[in-house]
Design brief:
By secondary structure, this protein is of the alpha+beta class. The longest helix is centred in the N-terminal third of the chain and has 30 residues. Helices cover about 30% and strands about 20% of the residues.
């Protein structure tokens, strides 16, 4: 029996020195330790038709050159582009499109991998998105160009509130007929004559209480009440630095007044007290802050106790141009209109309305000037264009009142103080209680609907949503493609990567 193996390795394999006579390249040795069965399995792993020189050949042949120009070498996931000399503008754009971050560009500028219908579909879709992006950009700029503002209102609940300025005026303008007769002044022509025939502070206001502080004597009353000459005549303004912690009738301002209707002029048609609530600001020392057009006025009748409930609202309007539609130093629309009427009257008639303290050399307008002063109309006020623009910062007070019958104790006290009969008390006594209806106020604030940074944010969102464009993408398009690749072609630098190209010069 022949013990020789069924297959003998070629002599050249043994001569190689790296493979023994019983080992085959590329096949691990059998774990059988050289047993006949292991040897048989090793031999059967190769077919009889394998040429002998194939066993000597290495299992992997490296490329002939590491700088192969084959751009589609599957062994290199990032192949270099072919050495394209004198590329066209289209070729330059196509190679740029494969690296840009703008979505859709690699598909629209495909270098021949797609069929025509597919490239046409991508081109159509990208152009449609570009059109939608253009529409969104135009809409953003149009909306920004309107310079709209948003208004928000919130309720502020502080621990206390500063008390406003309270001005009260006798309904007859404070004119005392007895004083007119005594002085012989029928119609005042200046502030001094008006003061001479008007009801003095101590006779009009005879009791005041602010929170727990009481003012009864004329000297005490003069510390908190200030005479103010207004278009309504002589009035008195109450100011204080005290704050209110409790709303309603438990605190606030209490005022007792005496109308003295017996001294009313014969032309007077109604009686009572006008109550004005305005901001406690030095600018309101001027009498023009009080007029028929002033907001927050309440008319209180005699013979009753009236509670004037006050509300407050603050406005902070947008001050930055061109969003602003307010006056930084404005004093309020109502006051502006009063001052405008005063200016038009003095210019047209040569006299001034009572309360107009701008030119003291002009006399007050009297009944002799009534025809002229009453003829001041819209055409004379057309120059007051700023009166339609509110101030940027404004504090507005609203007032409403409820009334009740005077108590017997208050009536008896008025009789004793004013030495009056019950009928006189009913005709002349006015009790006023002024306070906030609640310790809170409304704050209304204006802000830009779209600021410059919001515009940039909205534009960035539109660019990213429609075409995936960012600021870097814009640099890629205008700097890299247009500036460094296509524009240099005008002076002969036709390179695939443009200025800054390192390879394939």
């Amino acid at each position: 029996m022949n013990d020789a193996p069924t297959h003998q390795a070629p002599a050249s394999a043994a001569a190689a020195g790296s493979t023994s006579s019983d080992e085959v390249p590329g096949v691990p040795p059998s774990s059988s330790g050289g047993s006949p069965s292991g040897e048989k399995n090793r031999v059967n792993a190769f077919p009889e038709s394998i040429p002998s020189d194939a066993l000597d050949a290495p299992t992997h042949q490296p490329p002939a050159s590491s700088n192969s120009s084959n751009a589609f070498n599957k062994m290199d996931p990032f192949p270099d582009p072919p050495a394209i000399t004198n590329p066209t503008a289209l070729e330059t754009s196509q190679w740029w499109a494969e690296m840009t971050s703008i979505h859709g560009m690699p598909y629209m500028l495909d270098r021949g991998h797609f069929r025509r219908w597919k490239q046409f579909a991508w081109t159509t879709f990208v152009l449609f998105m570009a059109g939608a992006l253009t529409w969104a950009i135009v809409a953003e700029f149009q909306d920004f160009g309107k310079y709209n503002v948003d208004t928000s209102t919130k309720t502020i609940i502080p621990s206390s509130l500063g008390f406003p300025r309270v001005t009260i005026c006798n309904a007859n303008g404070g004119i005392d007929a007895d004083l007119q007769n005594a002085t012989g002044i029928e119609e005042p022509t200046n502030e001094a004559e008006l003061m001479a025939i008007s009801q003095p502070l101590g006779e009009f206001i005879w009791y005041t209480q602010m929170n727990d502080e009481v003012y009864e004597t004329e000297a005490e009353l003069a510390t908190v009440w200030t005479p103010v000459v207004t278009p309504l005549g002589l009035c008195f303004s109450f100011t204080t630095e005290e704050r209110v912690f409790v709303p309603g009738i438990s605190s606030g301002l209490v005022v007792y007044t005496w109308l003295d209707q017996d001294a009313y002029p014969a032309a007077a048609t109604w009686a009572g007290v006008r109550v004005f609530v305005t901001p406690n600001a030095p600018s309101n020392d001027n009498g023009t802050a009080i007029s028929h057009q002033t907001a927050g006025v309440v008319l209180v009748p005699p013979g009753a106790v009236s509670f004037v409930a006050v509300t407050r609202q603050d406005f902070q309007r947008e001050e930055d141009d061109p969003w602003s539609n307010c006056l930084p130093d404005g004093e309020g629309i109502d006051r502006c209109r009063v001052e405008c009427i005063m200016a038009a009257t003095s210019e047209k008639c040569g006299c001034r309305i009572v309360g107009d303290g701008r030119d003291a050399s002009l006399p007050y307008c009297t009944s002799a000037d009534e025809i002229c002063s009453s003829s001041v109309g819209d055409e004379d006020l057309a120059v007051c264009t700023s009166c339609s623009i509110p101030p940027c910062k404004e504090q507005v007070y609203g007032a409403h009142y409820s009334a009740g019958r005077i108590s017997q104790n208050a009536e008896e006290r008025a009789q004793a103080t004013m030495n009056a009969t019950p009928g006189e008390v009913a005709d002349n006594f006015v009790a006023i209680h002024v306070n906030f209806d609640s310790i809170r106020y409304e704050e209304t604030t204006e802000s830009k609907s779209t600021s410059v940074w919001q515009l940039f944010s909205n534009l960035g969102g539109s660019f990213g949503f429609f075409m995936g464009i960012s600021l870097i993408s814009i640099v890629e398009l205008f700097v890299e493609l247009l500036g460094l690749r296509l524009m240099p072609r005008l002076w002969g630098k036709k390179q695939l990567y443009g200025i800054g190209q390192r390879k394939f010069d």
